[in-house]
Design a protein that fits this description.
- Helices cover 24% and strands 22% of the residues.
- The protein has 14 helices and 19 strands.
- The strands form four sheets. Strands 11-10-12-15-9-16-19-18-17 form a nine-stranded mixed beta sheet, sandwiched between helices. The protein has a five-stranded antiparallel beta sheet with strand order 6-5-4-7-8.
- 52% of the residues are buried.
């Protein structure tokens, strides 16, 4: 339901009615497993802890610990004028249960992690939203809860390889292509897709008739500037007649189309798979501003986050960044060195959107988006398409360019999938995938010559650096200090094309494209000399994937 003219509201169902209506009598209620007494949130048909099916509802005290908050400046909503505070609290009865909420009846400057909070309720139609305010009496600050598995212990959850034979050994990347990239190109998404695909096919020395597989993310659907229509749209345009095809959002991050293609090629379903990713986010935003197209449809289920104005990944990740700072002493400057590095690299890349110099003062003084993130912590919405061809290794060495081999991939999920129930101090869905990668190779982090790590926000990039072992968990502050280690002549040349922070939000596939450019030695002024091994990550927060690529010699 929609609450005119206020916040977006959740859809009340038989499964969640007890939660969203419990405020009618001023008491907070949460699902309980009656077998093991654990609280379960969001409501599920089975307990994730004991796998029991005897589930009920428990009335809880309404007291909780403040474990995260972010002051949102850049995301105004009806009923929530900016600035407003998105917060996360952990229930005192079971700190594994965390609620996204709003901190109310206080100024943002009065808030501190570890404060005791109490539930109050705001009625909006049939929904009673649990909000939280500081309790009148504040004792000593509580310790923040720990994750189910601490970040430096995730590797013990990694499953061993099912067989000594690796599918990665059977595949290679043989072609890359990209359309023009820019802000508000006003070009149809599918036209950009076709241009990128034709470029990749030519780069590999193939013809369209050689392509027997298609793979993309997120596939067909109403994604509003985040896709071209999927496999169906491209096949209708090109008439490839693929023997295998794949398109969908529940995969290994935005670059998951490549890993799916590798599995298909290794399994004999195709020999040359054309993978593609297209965005027209900047044009879509401009068309909505002009009134040419309407905004996304209102109504529907606002879920567990949007009723509180947590409408962007930024609202979740900002709180993870805050906790990383709280636990490890990371600073805004730590994130700033990532933004400055990407901008310095973009200055050498003629296709990058933002190439002007960026200083630390520029970074720190930029307008706030949602604390601690400012403008330059966020990637650049753009228009463009990227295509990559995955081929069987037996065919790869006869093609136009030297093949880039795949040493290993990492895909395992080890963390909770719900954004506000997952890892506290890092971007969720990077730790397990990173640990899984190193279980499938004899190479080590020190062998990596160039890293192209997902940087939808600066904090994403920091999380991948620690998760992949380029520095220890919690040591990114020292590793990033001054930016020298991540510069093109540093120990870990990072996002050498400018990353998504300055080159543009190509949603992971641009990182793959740049890794291939570097391993081929085609980077021009930004080339890292002697690059032979590249780590490339894609996604995070939602399930992600990471690749370890290497040259053929």
């Amino acid at each position: 339901m929609a609450g005119p003219p206020g916040r977006p509201l959740p859809l009340i169902t038989d499964q969640n009615e007890f939660f969203w209506t419990s405020g009618a009598d001023g008491r907070l209620r949460v699902q309980e497993c009656t077998s093991c007494a654990a609280l379960v949130h969001p409501p599920q048909p089975v307990c994730r802890y004991c796998r029991g099916h005897d589930l009920g509802v428990r009335t809880v005290s309404g007291f909780a610990t403040l474990i995260g908050f972010t002051v949102s400046h850049g995301f105004g909503l009806p009923g929530l004028p900016t600035p407003y505070v998105v917060a996360q609290v952990a229930l005192e009865e079971d700190p594994r249960v965390r609620l996204t909420t709003n901190a109310v009846e206080c100024e943002p400057g009065q808030l501190a992690l570890g404060m005791r909070m109490e539930a109050v309720f705001e009625q909006a139609g049939d929904v009673w939203l649990p909000l939280f305010r500081p309790t009148a009496e504040q004792g000593e600050r509580a310790e923040l809860p720990v994750d189910e598995v601490e970040p430096d212990q995730v590797r013990r959850l990694v499953r061993p390889m099912a067989t000594p034979e690796k599918f990665e050994d059977k595949v290679a990347i043989t072609g890359i292509g990209a359309s023009e990239l820019g802000r508000r190109l006003m070009v149809p998404a599918l036209s950009l897709t076709v241009r990128a695909c034709e470029s990749a096919i030519a780069d590999a020395g193939l013809t369209l008739d050689d392509i027997d597989g298609l793979s993309t993310y997120p596939g067909a659907g109403s994604f509003g500037g985040f896709g071209e229509g999927g496999i169906l749209a491209l096949e209708s345009a090109l008439g490839v007649r693929p023997t295998w095809h794949n398109g969908g959002i529940e995969t290994f991050g935005p670059g998951g189309s490549l890993i799916s293609a590798m599995l298909a090629v290794a399994g004999g379903l195709a020999r040359h798979v054309l993978c593609f990713r297209t965005l027209t986010e900047a044009t879509t935003t401009e068309l909505m501003r002009r009134g040419t197209i309407g905004p996304p449809a209102a109504g529907g289920d606002a879920g567990w986050l949007k009723p509180y104005g947590a409408v962007s990944a930024a609202h979740t990740l900002a709180q993870n960044a805050q906790r990383h700072m709280h636990r490890y002493g990371t600073t805004r400057e730590s994130l700033g060195w990532i933004a400055l590095n990407q901008r310095a690299n973009a200055a050498l890349n003629p296709t990058a959107i933002y190439r002007d110099p960026l200083t630390m003062d520029d970074y720190l003084q930029a307008r706030p988006i949602t604390t601690p993130f400012g403008l330059y912590d966020c990637d650049v919405p753009c228009d463009g398409a990227v295509a990559v061809i995955v081929s069987h290794v037996d065919t790869a060495r006869d093609l136009a360019k030297p093949p880039v081999l795949v040493d290993a991939v990492g895909t395992q999920i080890t963390e909770r999938l719900e954004w506000d129930q997952s890892t506290l101090t890092h971007e969720p869905q990077v730790l397990g995938q990173a640990a899984h990668l190193w279980s499938r190779t004899t190479l080590r982090p020190a062998d990596v010559d160039v890293a192209e790590l997902y940087d939808g926000f600066t904090f994403n990039c920091l999380s991948w650096i620690e998760a992949l072992g380029f520095c220890a968990i919690g040591e990114a502050k020292d590793f990033l200090q001054g930016g020298k280690n991540i510069a093109r002549d540093g120990v870990l040349p990072l996002n050498t094309h400018g990353g998504q922070l300055s080159h543009g939000r190509t949603h992971g596939m641009g990182l793959v494209h740049e890794a291939i450019v570097q391993l081929r030695g085609e980077g021009g002024d930004r080339q890292v000399p002697g690059a032979r091994v590249a780590a490339v990550s894609s996604g995070g927060l939602t399930p992600s994937g990471v690749l370890l690529l290497r040259t053929d010699t």
